[in-house]
Amino acid sequence: MHDRILFVAANQIGKSMLLDTLAVHRFTLDHGYGYNQVIISKSKEQAKYQMSRIRDLLNASRVPYKTEFGEQESMNVLTLKVVDNNDSEKKKDRYDYFKYVNRIIVAPAASGSLGYDVHDLYLDEFAFYEVEQGLAYAYNQWFEPRTYATKGRITIFSNPNGKDHYMYDLWNQKKKDGSYRWHRYNFNFLDTPGNTVEEFEELKFL
After folding, report:
1. Terminal-residue alpha carbon distance, the chain
2. Exposure string (b/e) for 166-182, b if CB count within 10 Å is 16 or more?
3. From first to last of its 206 residues, what are the pLDDT tens digits of the chain?
4. Among 24, 86, 125, 206, which is most exposed with the fewest C-beta within 10 angstroms?
């Protein structure tokens, strides 16, 4: 399993839906301990939309969860508490007695958005974050350090935004042995079912 994944794709190809589905899937797994997933969106409005879709997925699956207040006003937190099924007394209230807690935290890009150690960090539309200090600073000072203690995974989902910014640098980042640090995926307009070459050729000139 790769611990650094970079998923670059065109608009409306389903990358945010994939992100939310991955988060919900990992949310429900028995990791054996508290498991924190953090989704960083490019704006407060986008963060709210992400959380609403995650709730829809959880409601459809009938997975029990609770909503908590985040450390920041703009932070949304979902909590899944799992009971120890070997203890009949603890079954009476599955939210009071549990063997581990999993969380999904959704927040906009900001220096105060990460107050937890992170096992899975998703950076949605990373190339378009508007942070005063710049993308390189935000990634190296805010985001990646949250995974140091957990040896956690970072997945970036984003549209491309030219070569003159930090996501392009990450795309080309290499290890000492010369291999790429990031496991890279690239999907364009034509990878979406129903889109045609004719449409693609026309859109290139708009």
Report:
1. 40
2. bbbebbeeeeeeeeebb
3. 689 999 998 777 778 888 889 998 888 887 767 788 999 998 888 888 888 899 899 888 877 777 775 555 556 677 766 544 444 444 444 444 455 678 888 888 876 656 678 999 999 999 999 888 889 999 999 899 999 999 999 999 998 888 888 999 999 999 999 999 999 998 877 667 777 788 777 766 65
4. 206
Say how far apart CA 153 and CA 3 lie, in whole Å. 4
At position 17, the amino acid (one-letter code) is: M
Residue/partner pairs of 11-14 with CB below 8 Å, 24 or more apart: 11/159, 12/192, 13/187, 13/189, 13/191, 13/192, 14/192
